[in-house]
């Protein structure tokens, strides 16, 4: 039986869409990435966000890529409540299959 170490990555600086793509493309099933900490719906919104416009736009791209990765079967997306209006947003890598090969190739092109 082959065993693997599952890792959880918590970046110290805000993650970019490109970094997220690179992680999803190389992650082994079960690996976890905290891709945002805060309140994603508020933080990525043009009206309610306290982020500067560039950081907010990058977060919106990251959010969209995370949702896409879940939709094509590359990751599970979960939230962990940290406190009032504060969450850790996690992507958990799923096994890569023949069905997801094209999506992985698209991630490589994006990165």
Write the layout of secondary structure elements.
Elements (H helix, E strand, L loop, with lengths): L7 E2 L7 H10 L5 E7 L1 H4 L9 H19 L3 E9 L2 E8 L7 H10 L1
Parallel strand pairs: 1-2
Antiparallel strand pairs: 2-4, 3-4
Helix pairs in contact: 1-3, 1-4
Short description:
The chain has helices at 17-26, 40-43, 53-71, 101-110, and strands at 8-9, 32-38, 75-83, 86-93. With 111 residues, it is α+β, with helices and mostly antiparallel strands.
Shape: globular
Structural class, from secondary structure content? alpha+beta
Provide the number of structural domains. Answer: 1
Largest pleated sheet:
4 strands, mixed
Going across the major beta sheet, what is the strand order? 1-2-4-3
The end-to-end span amounts to 33 Å
Determine the strand fraction and express it as a percent band.
Answer: 15-25%
Order of helices and strands: EHEHHEEH
What is the alpha-carbon Rg in Å? 14 Å
Strands, count: 4
Which range best describes the helical content: under 10%, 10-25%, 25-40%, 40-55%, 55-70% or over 70%? Answer: 25-40%
Q: Low-confidence parts lasting 5 or more residues at pLDDT below 50?
A: none
Mean pLDDT figure: 89
Number of helical segments with 4 or more residues: 4
